[in-house]
Amino acid sequence: MGHSHAHGTGLEHRSRLALVLGLTLAVLLAEAVVAVLTGSLALLADAGHMLGDSVGLLMALAAITVAQRGGGPGSRRSFGYHRTEVLAAGLNGLFLLVLSGFIVFHAIGRLGADTQLEATPILIAGAVGLVANVVGLLLLRDGADKSLNLRGAYLEVMGDALGSVAVLVSAGIIAVTGWAEADAIASLVIAALIVPRALSLLGDVAEVLLEATPKEVDLDELRSHILGVDGVVEVHDLHVWTITSGMPVMTAHVVVDDSVAGMGEAHSVLDRLHACCSSHFDVEHSTFQIETAEHRESERHTHH
Predict the structure, then answer these.
(1) Pick from 298, 286, 293: which is nearest to 232 by CA?
(2) Least enclosed by CB within 10 Å: which of 40, 41, 96, 272?
(3) Which of 169, 185, 209 is the last residue of a domain?
(4) What does the pLDDT look like over 138-185, one tens digit per residue?
(5) Is residue 214 part of a domain?
(6) Domains of the chain: total
């Protein structure tokens, strides 16, 4: 016996998210080209940062698409392809860590070195990137308060904007003073922005793959709510885990009192359980096994 709790997927923001992704990819390409032509490590770091965030935006867009189509579950994949988002996030986190190591290694090598950089094209590329990021923030601002998916995308674009600011500051210093080491320092700042996000992303992936209880779910509080439902005398084998971001799943064995003698009464208990969980906990799929006290005792002997 199961229950599905619908989530806001931000479908109305799908076109805006796609537009922001397109802008990010276009700026990424432009920055990468200018970085290669000028030798700017900060610009290359910002392009790499944008590449990582583009993957995040793509996953957000894919999550909305999957939600719209219902996930496409098949006989061997009853939850569809929701876990692909988690696998992609793990690869993205690893890529960002490798990128950060590359940036730090080369930035340290440039400190104190006699490097010549042309500031003008770096300034132009950084300014274009910042403008694109501001446009992206404006496009996603309304949805950021309505969907966790859109909020994640909004924060990723904000991180890109900070990277563009670092590029602009370093290019401005180079243009005024000719001090090329500012580029290496800016790249280190961008790497410092990337590493915490990469580690956080990998931590979230590990939590999902290990089927840990979501941080926002308090099992003791959930158990207390279930025990507070009329007709319920005990709950055991309570498990909550996550299929993918924003899709928690719950199962529980619920022991009912002797007044629950037939399917009609059992359905009433289920209705109350579902109403309780939907009101207090944001669980996508919840499944309850209704048991009598006698069944609970026989189950204990079976487990032993």
Answers:
(1) 293
(2) 272
(3) 209
(4) 988 877 666 656 777 788 888 889 999 999 999 999 999 999 999 999
(5) no
(6) 2
Let me know whether 114 and 233 are in one domain: no
Residues 97 and 23 in one domain: yes
In whole angstroms, give the CA distance from residue 45 to residue 162.
12
Residue type, 93: G
pLDDT at site 26: 94
Same domain, 205 and 250: no
Six token digits for residue 114:
């006699």
Token representation of residue 281: 């906990």
